[in-house]
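Before the break, one more example. Copy the sequence into your notebook; we will annotate it together after we see the structure.
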Amino acid sequence: MTDAASRTPETAAARRPRSSFSFSARDLLNVAIFAVIYVVIIFAVAMIGIVSPLVMLVTLPLGPILAGVPYMLFLTRVRHAGMVTLFGVVVGLVFLMMGHPWQSTLVTIAASLLADLVLRAGRYRSKRAAIWAYAVFSAWFIGPWIPFFVDPVAYMRTSSSQSMGEAYMQDFAQVVTVPAVLCMVAATIVCGLLGGLLGTALLRKHFVRAGLA
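Here is what the structure looks like once it is written out:
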């Protein structure tokens, strides 16, 4: 029996994207699990930046590459609108509790909503749309730097910045400039695209099973 013949109406219906925003228990569990995995990977990479401000700028874009695998695996479980946005809400709130500014949470949610729209344009069944959705989502990295763009001096006077030590902050003032941060964010988005490509390559079987072409 061929694959086409073996697909029952129930299987086809289960794989058909739904426009409903209602979430099943499995949907919520998938969002929670993969959001936590994503946060842990990004946080682990960010911790490398403790070495020096230069190391921080160089290594932060690597986060989306490593986190691209679990994120793309999460997308194979997305069956309808809203799941990617909810994922971003969870990630944004977790980082808010970890000390990110409130502006970062708003940017993360906005980036997730845009990623959701990209997936919707591909009817939640386009591999190309999934890759671009992750690149769009990776733009949230600009969020934590909004206070820095508004007032760099005040940013470096915050308690979290001062806790890094005087020597670190002196290097920070010399290395971390607005153009440098913008280049880092641009590199992060590019790395998000690379992370999406890496994730789809490593998870090819999962994408086939999920019906993403």
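The CA atoms of residues 30 and 155 lie 36 Å apart. The chain has a mean pLDDT of 86. Try to locate both features in your own notes.
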